Amino acid sequence: MTRPPAAAAAAARRGDAGPALRVQLGEPSAIDPGQAFEHDGALVAGLIADPLIDCVPATGRLAPAAASAWQVAPDGRSVRFRLRPGVRFHHGRPVTAQDYVYSLSRAVRPETGSPLAVHLAPVAGYDEVAAGRAGTLSGVRALGEHELLVRLSRPFHEIAAVFSQRVTAPVPAEVVERDPPGFARRPVSNGPYALAGELRPGEGLALERFGDYYGANAAYPDGGRGAAERIEFSVFTDMADARQAFLRGALDVTEVPADAAARAGAESGAALHSTPNPMVTYLAFPVTVPPFDDPAVRRAVAMCVDREGIAERRFAGMRPVAHRMVPSVLDPDGGPRLDLPHDPATARRLLADSAVPPPREPVRLLFNGGQGHEGWVGDVARDITAGLGWPVLPLRLEWPDYLRELPETSAMSRVNWAVDYLSVDNALHPLVHGEAVGDSNHARYRGAADRLIDRARATADPTARRELYRWAERQVLDDLPYLPLWEGVLHHLVDPRRVRPAGPVTDVFGVPVLRQFAVTTETGGSGR
């Protein structure tokens, strides 16, 4: 089911809109840059908000964006930013360093409820603000209108990468505080696009190019200005419906789930773009809940899952099996591997040796529906049942219910983790560090990896730091709170007749570079 953005219909009635870029969107949980944590919300937030630092789409290299320069201290305990003059909010006011003091502190405040706040945990004063004992991060200080200092509570030499995440983008206090619920529906920031109306559940939304955008984001050859005058997002709760809309010519860009990518390619030819991205799909074990508190049980369950067979059957080989916690695109030159064969007979012996009694009730496997997971989740459940004799019950939830259930679930669960910024730290710390329990560490795992990750953060030498992260990953793979299933590959259909990209179609995260998509007036539709 889908509904087009109401703002788009209004523009069509006015007859004053040029050709709009029409994009599929899942129902976003939030589009506020301080809260947009999942794929759909982040897609919108990336257009309405520029961080201090951005990533070059083709390479991921960090480049100056709203900051013209930055410097991490030699001891890794602070980072200083020089802000660009002339950056403005969508309502017209210039952005100053004080706006970052407010915005970063706001993201951490408990009343904001941001799932992204944990990225700012290294900043001095985080614990006090997160607990509600203070309103402002003590480590963030404006040294003038265009000079910002961020002090850290402990060394973190990859801190600059954190400031490429949209949670660090500025928002104006006077707009937020006047009407917080209204701001959530129509956030204001400093990006190349502004919302044309409020976000309403199920109705989609439209963005219009912001005329006073500063246009000096060095990650883009044109300074980051949007190529399309308008971007219209239509919400689809089922990706199969979105693919059909694309084939009819009603969409220019849509994501395609992995289990439908081969068919989409046959239907659409050159319109399909498949991009490896820094994401891994995992089977998460609730390690504080028996019998999954026993590493031998976790290993036995993992050995029953035929990851290669499911990948071939469900994804036509278009998603490689994951052998690491860390996506290979982040550390392509080596690292620890999980060499765990599909061997149900050995799994049964391992379970017998551990003397763990079988579960009295069916074991639940939690996943979100509507995104193409049903087939492979069912395969995983059947593999475990066939291997161990345990009844495994897949539990399909809608996205909002899944998000509510995930942090405290006693079930096994499907977990996708795509890094928020290009750092091995962001592939490990949020999933396995004890500090992230209750946030993104859905296995609720605590182990020796904590100390290794902390040491890596404090290590200035990049080679030595990489080795420490690898040791931490080895520890996690031995403990197996998560079974890595498949590496991330994102698939998108982009209409080659209507869309003219000014650069790569997708970035290193596998996300379409929408701000560089110009739109022609040709009739869309790529079906045959």
TrEMBL record:
Entry superkingdom: Bacteria
A Pfam short name: SBP_bac_5
Solute-binding protein family domain span: 62-436
InterPro entries in alphabetical order: Peptide/Ni-bd, SBP_5, SBP_5_dom
PANTHER family noted in UniProt: ABC TRANSPORTER SUBSTRATE-BINDING PROTEIN, PERIPLASMIC BINDING COMPONENT OF ABC TRANSPORTER
Name recorded for this polypeptide: ABC transporter substrate-binding protein
